[in-house]
Amino acid sequence: MAESKNVVYAKDLKITWSRDRRYWRWVKETENSYVAELLNVCWLKVSGKLENPNLSSRTQYEVVLEAKMKTRAYGFDDPVNFKFTHPGGTEDWTINLEDKFKDSKDQWKDIKLGEFIASENPGAIEFLLYKYGGKWKSGLVIKSVAVRPKS
Fold it and tell me: One Pfam family for this entry, by name (predicted)?
């Protein structure tokens, strides 16, 4: 993923239970970057915010999760929810992460979470990936969430 001002790296995301080593592990990727590895939760909540995104008006953008699913991941056979708020409004939908990683376990992948057209006055962009209750989940590794022009 290209370096960009419009990226929220794992350490800057709000991840419920991420400070409890029973549920999440922080893995050093490079000298200055860490990824968040899900060990075991039934309450998944990952959120972030871009305060002043550098967007060009009337350009179509996509919101992308850079992540991987470990080979022994479990609990993602049910879709997770995604909520996305941008200056044009709020959108909600579900994403089946297990399907997204079906043929690419243990490989970094860009998962498109949504898209929008930037307005003249871009404001803050917020996003939330969540699944409350239900099955215990493990094996998702999160590197970042980016807002980038749709190619």
Answer: PP2
Chain-centroid distance, C-alpha 122: 21
Predicted structure pTM score: 0.91
Residue 127 lies in a domain: yes
Domain membership of residue 24 (yes or no) is yes
Question: Domain for residue 61, yes or no?
Answer: yes
Which residue range forms the structural domain that includes residue 118?
Answer: 7-149
**Residues linked to residue 128 through DSSP beta bridges, in sequence order:** 47, 83
Give the CATH number, domain containing residue 42.
2.60.120.260
Q: Looking at the chain, which runs of residues are DSSP E strands? A: 7-9, 14-15, 24-30, 33-38, 44-50, 60-74, 80-86, 89-95, 109-117, 125-131, 138-149
**pLDDT per residue of the chain (151 residues) written in tens, 0 to 9:** 444 579 999 999 999 999 999 999 999 998 889 999 999 999 999 999 998 788 888 899 999 999 999 999 999 999 999 999 987 789 899 999 999 999 899 999 999 988 888 887 778 899 999 999 889 999 999 999 999 999 8
Q: CA end-to-end span of the chain, whole Å?
A: 13
Whether 1 is covered by a domain: the verdict is: no
